[in-house]
Amino acid sequence: MAQITLQNLAHSYLPNPKGEDDYALKQLDHDWTDGEAYALLGGSGCGKTTLLNIISGLIRPSRGRILFDGRDVTDAPTAQRNIAQVFQFPVVYDTLTVRDNLAFPLRNRGLPAAQVAQRVQAVARMLGLEEMLPRRARGLTADAKQKISLGRGMVRQDVNAILFDEPLTVIDPHMKWELRTQLKALHREFGHTMIYVTHDQTEALTFASRVVVMHEGRVVQIGTPQELFERPAHTFVGYFIGSPGMNLLPARVEGDRAHIDESGTIALGRGYGGLGGRIEIGVRPEFARLSAHEGLPVVIRRIEDVGRHRIVRADLGGRPINIVASEDEPIGPDMTRVVFDPAHVGVYADGWRVEGSPR
Amino acid sequence: MNKPINNRAWFLVLPVLVLVAFSAVIPLMTVVNYSVQDTFGDNEFFWNGIYWFDDLLHSERMWNALGRQILFSAIVLLIEVPLGIFIALHMPKKGFWSSVCLVLMALPLLIPFNVVGTIWQIFGRVDIGLLGRALAGLGLDFNYTQDVIDAWVIIVVMDVWHWTSLIALLAYAGLRSIPDAYYQAAKIDQASRWAVFRYIELPKMRGVLVIAVLLRFMDSFMIYTEPFVVTGGGPGNATTFLSIDLVKMALGQFDLGPAAAFSIMYFLIILLVSWAFYTVMTNLDREEGPQ
Amino acid sequence: MTLELRGVSKTVGRQVHVHPTNLMLQKGTMNVLLGPTLSGKTTLMRLMAGLDVPTAGRVLWNGQDVTGLRVQDRAVAMVYQQFINYPSMTVFENIASPLRLLGRPRGEVEDRVRRAAALMRLEPYLQRRPLELSGGQQQRCALARALVKEAGLVLLDEPLANLDYKLREELRAEIPRIFEEAGSIFVYATTEPEEALLLGGNTATLWEGRVTQFGPTPDVYRNPVDATTARVFSDPPMNFLRVAKRLAQIQFGAGQGIPAVGSLAALPEGVYVAGFRANHVGLDRPTGEALEFRATVLGSEITGSETFVHLDHDGVRWVGLVPGVRDLAPGMPATVWVNPAHVFVFGEDGRLVTSSATSMAA
C-alpha cells in the first residue's frame, strides 16, 4: 500500500501541445492518501480515464511526476507499479478455470503453490466465488466475471492501489447494489487505496469517502459527498451532483441580500462584499420549497412523481427552476411561491463559489 | 400456430435447384456411372460393380499418392499456421505501415495459380533462375528436376510463399478484435509475453484459426496447378499428388473407370475431413455456452 | 389508434420467452416495459413490431389482425440501446432517410426533418456526420429519425442505457415532452424503476417472461398486485420479512413479536410476507405509530444528502434510505422504525393482501 503523489502533472495526446486547450488533463497536484477510497467523477471526455491510466502506467504523462511513497515511478511500466485494475468490461482468461484465473497474477510472480492455493481460497471466499472455482470462466454471467476481475486484483497482498474504470457499467441494477457493498466491505477489511472512475454520481458518492470531480480536464473540487452536496465549489459540481442539479439564477448581491431581476429579493446566510464578474446564486432543489404566502413568485409547469419524492418543474422570472417536494407533502393550487433556505444558498462569481463572511 | 405458411415460396428456389442439377448433380452422376462400368472402346460400356473401387483400395499407386498428399498437407500446415500467426503478431497495429503490410501480404494471394507455378519454376532453375543460380553460386547442389528432396523443398516453399499471407491476414483480423483492456489487464497481472499469447491471443484467435486451417487443408489437399507447372509430378512420381495422379489416369491413360472411382474416393475423403472439422468447431462453440 | 396483444406468447425450442400476454395500448400514450435483463422486454417489443411472429395469440392494430404482417408493412419505428445511424450520411440525411424511402416530395421532407430536429435540439448539427457528434447527440439523431416517420408505433429499447448519467437525466426530462407533441403509441423498455417513474405514463412490469401488472405508472408503483411486481419496481430492492399474525401480534424470526398497529391490526390471523421500500425505513423514532425492528448494520453509503444503510435483520438483507448524513459503523446494532402505513402485506402465494395507506390516499 502506498501514498500516491502527483506533481505538476499534465497530459496532452498531441506531440507538441501549445495552449491550455491542447491538454486533455490540465496541471494537477494531488496526494492520494494511503488507504482512502476515492472516486473520480465527471462526464465523458473530462480526463478522468486519462488520469487513471497515468496512475496505472498505461500512459506516460507529458509533464510532471508521479510518486508512490515518495519513489518516482513516472517511467516505471505498469507491471512494476504493483497496482490492480478492474475494467468497464470484465476481463477474464476464458480458457482458464476460475481458480486459475485468480491464481494467474500470483503464478506470474512465481509464488509457491501452497501460498497461491491459500490466497486463492481466501479471495474466493470473500467474493462468494468458492463454488465456481473449478468452472471455466467462459460463459459465466457478467457480474461473476467482474468479480473474477476484482479477485485477480485482490489476490495480491502487496498491491499499492486498486483502480476501477466504470466497473459496474454492464451489471444489472439489482446486482450493482450487491457488488458495491462488497467493494466497500473489502475496502474496510483490507484498507487498500482505491480509485474508482465513473460518470454516475450515485456510484461515486456511495462508494468513495472523497470524491474528485473533474470537468474539461480540470479538477474542480475534491471533497466528501456531503461537502459536494452542500457546498459545491463550482457551478459544474452543483449541476453534476444531485438530480436534478443545483438551480442557478443570475443575481445582484449586496451584503446579505440577493436581488433576482424582477422576481424579488432573498436573504443569504452570509455577507458578501466587493464581488466582481458574473454573479449567480445557486440553490439545490432539496433546499427550495413551495409556499402560498412567502417567497418569490413561480409558475408551475409540471410535477413529476418519482416515487419517494416529487420534482416540481417551474418557471421563476422566465428561468427554469426545480423544487423537490416530499412524497406526502400536499401541493395546493395556491402554492405559487418558492422559498430558499438561506443557509444553503451559495454565491458564485464566474462559476466559482465565493465564501462570504458570517453575519 | 398462426405462422403464415405460403407454399408458393418454393417456386423461388426452383432456379437454384435447376442450376445445381446442371452444375453439380449431373456431372457427379456421370462420374458415378463411369465408376461402376468398364469399356473396351467404341463407347460401349458394361456393368462392372465395385471392381474399380476394390482395385483402387489394393492399388499401391493410389496409397502412395495419398501418402504423399497427406505428408504435403501436414508439412505446409505445420509451417504456414505458426508462421502466419507469428507474422500477424508482429504486424504494425495501426497507421501507415499497417496498410503497407496488408497490401504486401495480399499480393501473393492475387496471383493466378499457374503464374505462381511458372514464377517458381523459372525462379528455381539452375540455368536461368535467380534462386537456382544463387544457390549454385553458393556451392549448393540444388536441382528440383532431378533431386526428390529439392523438388519437395521448392514446392513446399512455393506453397508457403503463396498461402501464408492468408493465415496471417485471418489471424491479424482475430487479433485486432481483442479489446485493449485485455492487454492492460495482462500487464497488470505481470503476464509474460508467452502467457499473453497462450491465454489471451490464442483463445481469441481460435475461431478464425479453425477456419484458416480448414481452408488451407482443403486447398493443399486438392493442390494441382502449381506442382504440375513446376515439377509435373516428378522426378519420377516423387511429387505426384492425388490430383496429378488422377489427371494422369483419366486424361493420360484414359482409364475412365478407375479414374471415376478415384474421384469419388477423393471426394469422400474431403467430405469426411470437412465433416470432422465442422463437428469439432460446433463442439467448441457449444462448450463456449451462452455469453 | 390502438395496439392490442391478445394472448400473445413466444416459445423458442422448449424455452418460453414470453408467456401468454394481453395488453391494450392507446394512442398518444407512453408505455414503459420495466423488468430486469432477460425478463422478456425485447421479445415483447419484437412481437409488437412484427420482427418476430408469436407462437400463439394475435396482434391487433386498430382492431385489425396484423399478426403475420411483416415489419416493413407496418408503421413502426424503433430505437435501440446502441446508437444506430448511417455513418456516411449527414444528420439531416439520416433523419430524412425514412421519408426518402417513402418517396415524399422534397419540400415536405425538408419541413418534417427541420421539425424533428428542432424537437430534438439538433438544428446546429444538421450538416455534421453522426460520428462527429457526442453520444447524446447521436442518440437524439436516432430518436429524431424514429419520430420523423410519424409511425403509429414507436419502440424504444433502453435508448438511454449507453449514455452518461447526466445526459440520461436531461433526455429523460425531454422525452415525455416530445411524446406529448407526437401523439403516437410509445413503448419504452428499461431496467430502472426510477426511469419508469420519470417517464410517467403507463408501466407494465415484467418478470421471467410474464407481465405481472399493467397500469398508470404511479399506480403500479404504489399498488403492486403482488410481491414480484413490488420487487421489480423497487430500487434499492424492497425489504421483505416473513411474518405471522397471531393474537394482535406480528411475529417474526425466533420468538420476536411486535404489536400489530395501523392497517395491520385488521389483518386476519395467518402467515404473510411483509414488504416495505428502503425510503420508508427510519433510524429515528417517529411521532406516530411504528413497527420497531432490531438489526445489525452491514455498512452505510452516503450520497451527500441521504444515506443508504445496509442492514442484516435476522439473516435477511435490508436496505434503508434515510435523509441526511448518518455514519454508522459496520457491526453496530441499530433499531429501525417502519410506519405500518408504508408496509405491503402479501399472502404466502405472493398476492397483495393489504396495501400501504399512502396509496389509498393517492
TrEMBL record, chain A:
The record, for SUPFAM superfamilies, names: MOP-like, P-loop containing nucleoside triphosphate hydrolases
InterPro entries associated with the record: AAA+_ATPase, ABC_transporter-like_ATP-bd, ABC_transpr_FbpC, ABC_transpr_MalK/UgpC-like, Mo/tungstate-bd_C_term_dom, NA-bd_OB-fold, OB_MalK-like, P-loop_NTPase
What is the organism field in this record?
Rubellimicrobium rubrum
- Name of the molecule in the record: ABC transporter ATP-binding protein
Q: Is Metal-binding set as a keyword in this record?
A: no
Alphabetically list the UniProt keywords: ATP-binding, Cell membrane, Membrane, Nucleotide-binding, Transport
Q: Name one GO cellular component term.
A: ATP-binding cassette (ABC) transporter complex, substrate-binding subunit-containing
- ABC transporter domain segment(s): 4-241
Cite the Gene3D superfamilies for this sequence. Answer: 2.40.50.100, Nucleic acid-binding proteins, P-loop containing nucleotide triphosphate hydrolases
Instruction: Return the CDD domains for the record.
Output: ABC_Carb_Solutes_like (cd03259)
Q: Which GO terms describe its molecular function?
A: ABC-type ferric iron transporter activity; ATP binding; ATP hydrolysis activity
The entry sums up its family as follows: Belongs to the ABC transporter superfamily.
Q: Which Pfam families match?
A: ABC_tran, OB_MalK
From TrEMBL, chain B:
Q: Residues in domain ABC transmembrane type-1?
A: 66-277
Which residue windows are transmembrane per the record?
70-89, 101-123, 151-175, 207-225, 259-278
Matches recorded under InterPro entries = MetI-like, MetI-like_sf, Sugar_ABC_transporter
What topology in the membrane does the UniProt record assign?
Multi-pass membrane protein
Query: One Pfam family for this entry, by name?
Result: BPD_transp_1
Q: Which domain of life is it from?
A: Bacteria
**Protein family (similarity comment):** Belongs to the binding-protein-dependent transport system permease family.
Q: What is this protein called?
A: Sugar ABC transporter permease
Which organism is the protein's source? Rubellimicrobium rubrum
TrEMBL record, chain C:
Q: What keywords appear on the UniProt entry?
A: ATP-binding, Cell membrane, Membrane, Nucleotide-binding, Transport
Give one Pfam family: TOBE_2
Q: Where are the transmembrane segments?
A: none
Q: Note the SUPFAM superfamilies from the entry.
A: MOP-like, P-loop containing nucleoside triphosphate hydrolases
The Swiss-Prot or TrEMBL record annotates one GO molecular function as: ATP hydrolysis activity
Among InterPro entries, the record links this protein to:
AAA+_ATPase, ABC_transporter-like_ATP-bd, ABC_transpr_FbpC, ABC_transpr_MalK/UgpC-like, Mo/tungstate-bd_C_term_dom, P-loop_NTPase, Transp-assoc_OB_typ2
Query: Which parts form a coiled-coil structure per UniProt?
Result: none
A single GO cellular-component term from the record reads: ATP-binding cassette (ABC) transporter complex, substrate-binding subunit-containing
Signal peptide (residue range): none
Domain (ABC transporter) ranges: 3-233
PROSITE patterns per UniProt: ABC_TRANSPORTER_2 (PS50893)
Family label: Belongs to the ABC transporter superfamily.
- Please give the name of this protein: ABC transporter ATP-binding protein
